[in-house]
Amino acid sequence: MLDSNMKLENVEEITGHGLTANVNGKQLLVGNFKLMDKFNIAYDIDPTTIVYTLIAIAYNEKFVGYLTIADSIKLDAHLTIDKLKALNVKTTMLSGDKSTVVKFVADKLGIINAFGDLLPEDKVNKVKELKAKNETVCICRRWRK
């Protein structure tokens, strides 16, 4: 049961990691496991073994658990990738999602080049690398619901 006297203060987004805030004077961290590492929070799981997107939670400098999120691949994603392949278009997937999730989705869709755990600037740099090779780039967003 939530305490009606709970005070959430100093909420701050840490790009590519998650959120930090103070709840009743104690630190709350909600985000990926890179956020836990950044704040030296020890955890007792290996997040790389879990295919789903994970949201790690720490409170008062202690790991308290995680949530898993599993998106569905859009129904027309397979068709779109197949049509692009038929046109000899090479596809590359760039995502901020963790690498295991990206690999899982890329394998399902038949995308050979896939990169996960990317911050926004990492995605920009990957696109610049493609353009530097004189590749034509088309950006599509979100293959999932």
User: What's the shape?
Assistant: elongated
Count of individual helical segments: 4
**Structural classification:** alpha+beta
Assigned CATH superfamily of the largest domain: Calcium-transporting ATPase, cytoplasmic domain N
Our measurement of the CA-to-CA distance between the termini, rounded to an integer number of angstroms, reads: 31 Å
Order of helices and strands: EEEHEEHEHEH
Please state the second-level CATH architecture of the largest domain: 3-Layer(aba) Sandwich
Oligomeric description of these chains: single chain
Helix amount: 25-40%
Summarize model confidence as the mean pLDDT. 88
Number of domains: 2
Largest sheet: 5 strands, antiparallel
**Quick one: CATH class of the largest domain?**
Alpha Beta
Unreliable stretches (pLDDT < 50, length at least 5) are none
Please count the beta strands (DSSP E, at least 2 residues each). 7
User: What is the spatial order of strands in the main beta sheet?
Assistant: 1-2-3-4-5
CATH topology of the largest domain: Calcium-transporting ATPase, cytoplasmic domain N
Rg from Cα: 19 Å
Strand portion: 25-35%
